[in-house]
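Limitations

Structures in this collection are predictions, not experimental determinations, and the ligand pose is part of the prediction. Treat each record accordingly. The example that follows, with NAP as the small molecule, is included so readers can see exactly what is and is not provided: the inputs are given verbatim, and the output is the predicted complex.
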Amino acid sequence: MTLPETSRFPFAADLRICRILNGMWQVSGAHGAIDPARAVAAMDAYHDAGFTTWDLADHYGPAEDLIGSFRRQFGRRHGALRLPEIQAFTKWVPSPGMMTRPVVEAAIGVSLRRMGVDRLDLLQFHWWDYQDRRYLDALRHLADLRDAGKIRHLALTNFDTERLAIIIEAGIPIVSNQVQYSLVDRRPAAKMAAFCSGHAVTLLTYGTLLGGLLSEKYLGCPEPGRAELPTASLQKYKQMIDAWGGWALFQELLAALKRVADKHGVSIANAGTRYILDRPAVAGVIIGARLGVAEHIADNTRVFDLALDAEDHAAIEQVLAKSRDLMRVIGDCGDEYR
Ligand SMILES: NC(=O)c1ccc[n+]([C@@H]2O[C@H](COP(=O)([O-])OP(=O)(O)OC[C@H]3O[C@@H](n4cnc5c(N)ncnc54)[C@H](OP(=O)(O)O)[C@@H]3O)[C@@H](O)[C@H]2O)c1
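Predicted complex:
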C-alpha cells in the first residue's frame, strides 16, 4: 500500500476502510462501455495503490460480479488469507412490494453469490417511498440477517434526517448513510451531519466531484449542453449546478478552487475532496471509477497530504455564499429521488 495511514478510517470496530472509496456506478453502462477483463485488471491497480474499499449496488450492471471476479483472482494470486484486505459495500434498492423475510433473504442471497462472499461487508438500503412504511419491515429483516452473519454492518443510502431518526429510534443498528455531498450540494451540513454525529452514524458521500465537472477540465469552459456531457453522472450533477446557482457561479467556484489548488500544488478535484472529507460525520468520499477506461489514482492519492487552511476556506466560502440554499430548492438528503 502506498497511501499514508491518514487514508484509513475505523468505520466500525471490525472494519477499517480507505477514506476514498472507489465508486462502481461507472461500470453500469450509463458511463460508456466497460470491458470486464480490463475492469478487473484496473481493480488490481486501485487495490495495490491502497484504494481497497469499493462502493457498488445490486443494480450497477455487472458491479457485484466484477467484485466476485476480482476477489477470485486476488485469492488465487495472494492467497485467501489476504481477502479481508478488500472491503466491498453493496446496496439493495428494492422495487416497492412486500418486505417479508423470504423476499429480503433472497435479495441478499443474490448479492452474496454474485460477490462470492459468505457475508456482505456493508449493505446499504435504499427506499423510494416514505409513505410506504414497509421500509421498517425490510430493515428489521436485514438486521436479523446481520445477526445471522450474512451482513457485517447495515447502512442506508439517500435517507433523510427525519426517517433516519425513525429508524434509529426503532432500534435498528445503522452505521452509515450514503448521501450526495459536495461543494455544490451541501445539504448534509444542514441537519443530517449533526444528527449522525449525535448517533454514531457516519456519512459516505457521492457526487463530491460532480461526475468530473469539479476539475480543471471544465475550468473556463462554456456551459455544456446535455449532449456534450457523455456520462449519466455529468448530466446528473450539471442539473444540480443549475439548481445551485448556474454555470457562471460554478466557474467562480472552479476559479477559487484553482487558486487554492495551485497554492498547495494539488488539483481542483483534490481540494473538493479534502473539503468534504473534513466535514463533520464524513467517513469517506466515494469517487467514481470508469474501470479500464480512465483513472486518477495518482492524483487522488494527493488528497491525503492536503490540509486546507482558513484562507482557503474563506476564499471558497465567498463563492458559496452567493449560491441558492438547496435545502429549500430540493429538500433534505435524497429528496430528489422522491
Ligand atoms: N447512493 C446513490 O444514490 C449514488 C448516486 C450516485 C453515485 N453513487 C456512488 O458514488 C460513486 C461516484 O459516482 P458519481 O456519479 O458521484 O461521480 P463522481 O465521483 O462525482 O465523479 C467521478 C468522475 O470524476 C472524474 N474524476 C475522478 N477523479 C478525478 C480527479 N482526480 N481529477 C479529475 N477528475 C476526476 C472521473 O471522470 P473520468 O472518468 O471522465 O475521467 C470520474 O469518472 C458511484 O460510482 C457510486 O458508487 C451513489
